[in-house]
């Protein structure tokens, strides 16, 4: 692949005392090293579990992937006071703008001093501006959306609402995660002839869930 992307839903840590499973996860950093060794270029980290280990978990995860030369989407470390909404990659002369948002963080709030630590599907006006700005500079805009109802096989109203927003904003491809189940995909077209491919949920790649 020219660009290989994987969703790492849970925060990483190298502190065994912070390892944990449901409902608040802490994943050994060895999983991150395996992702790097497998050759992934991009990791999407905005998920409902992003803040399971607080600001520490977000910062460790972001800094870890940065140290591996992997683009880490959707989260920002404590030191990143002015977060970037997207990453731009160029392959074969094609400029890709990559975004990553989550519907929420299971009620865990980001620190007051870092309110944008995890990118949320929340401020519609701001997200439209971010996407449209990237679209004016890049050839292809891809949004990785952590959304939907767990285990559901069809998209819910929240997914459909944001799909329409993405279409109107000029997104080219939407890739959905979170439901842990495969959901439909379709090609949509707006009134101006712009087409957008949306995968509502691609299910799990590797997981301990049944």
- Biggest sheet architecture: 6 strands, mixed
Total count of strands: 11
Portion of residues within helices: 10-25%
Judged by helices, strands and strand pairing, the structural class is: alpha/beta
Spatial strand arrangement across the major sheet: 6-7-8-9-11-10
Which parts are unreliable, with pLDDT below 50 for 5 consecutive residues or more? Answer: none
Overall radius of gyration: 16 Å
Give the percentage of residues in beta strands: 15-25%
Order of helices and strands: EEEHEHEEEHEHEEE
Can you give a write-up of this model?
With about 210 residues, the chain is an alpha/beta fold. Helices cover about 25% and strands about 25% of the residues. It is built from four helices and eleven strands. It has helices at about 30-35, 55-65, 125-135, 155-170, and strands at about 5, 10-15, 25-30, 40-45, 70-75, 85-90, 95-100, 140-145, 175, 185-190, 195-200. Strands 6-7-8-9-11-10 form a six-stranded mixed β-sheet, with helices on one face. Strand 10 (about 185-190) and strand 11 (about 195-200) form a beta hairpin. The longest helix is centred in the first third of the chain and has 14 residues, at about 55-65. The protein is globular and about 55 Å long. The relative contact order is 0.13.
Concise account of the structure shown:
By secondary structure, this protein is of the alpha/beta class. Helices cover 24% and strands 24% of the residues.
Question: How are the SSEs placed, and which strands pair?
Answer:
Elements: E1 5-7, E2 12-13, E3 27-28, H1 29-37, E4 42-44, H2 54-67, E5 71-73, E6 86-91, E7 94-102, H3 124-137, E8 140-146, H4 157-169, E9 173-177, E10 185-189, E11 195-199
Helix pairs in contact: 3-4
